[in-house]
Write a structure and sequence with these properties.
Oligomer: single chain
Distance between the termini: 24 Å
Order of helices and strands: EHEEHEEE
Shape: globular
Number of helices: 2
Strand content: 25-35%
Number of strands: 6
Largest sheet: 4 strands, mixed
Length: about 120
């Protein structure tokens, strides 16, 4: 269940945001073999007066799995940051992309925890 949050500065066109969200989901699905229906992508747009840096920030939280190794993460980060540079016209060298690997027992869907016995 990957959850991606993209923090942008200023208002973007709906078509640009849609393309970015779809691209991010497609990259995660393709590169990590994650079903599309399990991927969440959220975009938050900040007014410039409310941030100290103007670079977009991307975070990805997902359940740690052996096949989500450094090579998979690197490919997703590279591809998504390159797409952001292309779509938003920002210099990719300033875009941070942070990935958090969560232990399975720290994640639930519909209140059902993964990776641990369920309470009765």
């Amino acid at each position: 269940m990957p959850v991606v949050k993209v923090e942008l500065i200023g208002k973007q066109e709906p078509a640009v945001k849609k393309e970015l969200m779809e691209y991010i989901a497609e990259q995660i699905s393709t590169v990590s073999n994650t079903p599309m229906q399990n991927i969440y992508v959220f975009i938050n747009e900040w007014d410039a007066e409310n941030v100290i840096r103007k670079d977009p920030v991307i975070t990805l939280d997902w359940v740690a799995k052996p096949d989500r190794d450094a090579a998979v993460k690197a490919e997703i980060m590279k591809n998504v940051v390159n797409k952001m540079e292309e779509l938003l016209g920002v210099d990719k060298s300033g875009i941070p992309f942070l990935i958090t690997d969560l232990p399975p027992d720290s994640v639930s869907v519909g209140g059902v925890a993964r990776g641990c016995a369920q309470p009765k």
